[in-house]
Amino acid sequence: MRMRSLHERAARIALRGEGGPRGRAAMADFRLGEGGDGIERAEAFFPSHGFSLHRHDTYAIGLTVAGVQTFHYRGRQRYCRPGQCHILHPDEAHDGAAAAEGGFRYRIVYIDPALIQRAIGGRPLPFLAEPVLDLAPAQRRLLDAAWEMEESIDALGQAELVAAVAEFLEAHSSPRPRRREPLRLAALERVRAAIAAAPTVPHRASDLEREAGLDRWTLARQFRAAFGTSPTRFRTLRQLDRARALLKRGTPLAEAALEVGFADQCHMTRHFKRAYGLSPGRWVASLSARAD
């Protein structure tokens, strides 16, 4: 599984927020929970602005705990109130901020779409047109394990959690036209694994065609249907995984950018902000705050 761990242990990160009404700096708070292979959990509080427009290649399934959060998603401004769930599809741009004074707090789980794909047996990934949902008690019980910050996830727990999330996603997904072609999942998995194994160098379309036994147009179309993003975007996110690992070890930004295959530091910064909603410099600063 390709996701790099951000949760070796639960941690609190103090991030410098925007000034309060009297010019005092408010403090955001971010805590990483117990995770597993392909699964990350977090809890965050933001007093005002949360994060800039960005997109990632995982499902993001959040629960607002306190306050009201607002975000732009698929051309509309959305609001998620306490007890409501928000679900973001892989590769969909979104931001986040408080909709009222007092900030907002939420718990969230990020799940590798490949896990969902295995649970649904090769069908296209579920897509929810409306990202904010009220949860019935039975639905809340179904998803509670996803937001359990302190509970470790073993192989069985991973399967149970992913199966529950996949069931929920498919139950609420928008109807889609029937596909005329079945997904070539084994071939797509080979391509995905090849890119993940060597993300620092570009992969020629002809090489991926041979790996999959598919022409490049079918490959691009089916890869997105299976995993929610394009092969090129998947490669960029794996470059950023490696960059974050280097930055955590203290590697300078410019050096990390070149080592993972970006043209320069500016090139890496653009992609970093698009993926995580903050610059690599701010991300490194948050790690320093945690160490303090």
Describe what you observe in this structure.
The protein has 292 residues and is an alpha+beta fold. It contains 10 helices and 11 strands. The chain has helices spanning 113-120, 137-143, 155-172, 185-197, 205-212, 216-227, 231-248, 253-259, 265-276, 280-291; strands at 11-19, 25-32, 39-46, 49-54, 59-67, 69-73, 76-80, 84-88, 94-98, 104-111, 132-134. The protein has a 7-stranded antiparallel β-sheet with strand order 1-2-3-10-5-8-11. A 4-stranded antiparallel β-sheet has the order 4-9-6-7. Helix 1 packs across helix 3, helix 4 runs parallel beside helix 7 and helix 8 packs across helix 9. Residues 1-25 have low confidence and may be disordered.
Feature tags:
292 residues; alpha+beta; Jelly Rolls; Arc Repressor Mutant, subunit A; 2 domains; seven-stranded antiparallel sheet; four-stranded antiparallel sheet; 11 strands; 39% helix
What is the element layout, followed by pairings?
Blueprint: E1 11-19, E2 25-32, E3 39-46, E4 49-54, E5 59-67, E6 69-73, E7 76-80, E8 84-88, E9 94-98, E10 104-111, H1 113-120, E11 132-134, H2 137-143, H3 155-172, H4 185-197, H5 205-212, H6 216-227, H7 231-248, H8 253-259, H9 265-276, H10 280-291
